[in-house]
Amino acid sequence: QAQLVESGGGSVQSGGSLRLSCMPLTPTGYCMGWFRQPPGQEREGVAAIDSDGTTTYADSVKGRFIISEDNGTNTLYLQMNSLKPEDTGMYFCAADQFAGKSSKLISLLALDDGSYNYWGQGTQVTVSS
Predict the structure, then answer these.
(1) Cα(123)–Cα(89) distance, rounded to whole angstroms?
(2) Which residues of 13-50 are buried (b: 16+ CB within 10 A; e: fewer)?
(3) % of the chain residues with pLDDT over 70
(4) How far are the Cα atoms of 22, 34, 92 from residue 125, in angstroms, in the given order?
(5) pLDDT above 90: residue 106
(6) How far does CA 50 lie from the centroid of its chain?
(7) Looking at the predicted structure, is the pLDDT value of residue 69 above 90?
(8) For 41, which DSSP code?
(9) Torsional sign, CA 85, 37, 28, 26
(10) Is pLDDT of 89 > 80?
(11) Of 34, 41, 39, residue with least CA distance to 61
């Protein structure tokens, strides 16, 4: 059952930008992440932010995507710049408490979709060349 709601997807040309949103932010102590599933491929981790504000990015998006939280609007964001056709896919936000896990282990699991129990239904991003 989806617990989170994503928005902001759409169609853009290569080099363009999009900002994805996910509501609501989870309570203190949760790690939140963005994942994507390209057509015909498995879901993969894109970016995550833990309860201390530490961020983790997939190598494929480093320097182009930024994950952030806004407690005032209770929203998780993913700013995506310099988009490429290979960024096309369904984007999901996810959250989990990672209860009992050390910060070091959380950093290793932050982009592992199997570690998250709360998911949104996704928003489609299509980048054309």
Answers:
(1) 9
(2) eeeeebebbbeebbeeebbbbbbbeeeeeebebbbbbb
(3) 98
(4) 14, 13, 11
(5) no
(6) 12
(7) yes
(8) S
(9) positive
(10) yes
(11) 34
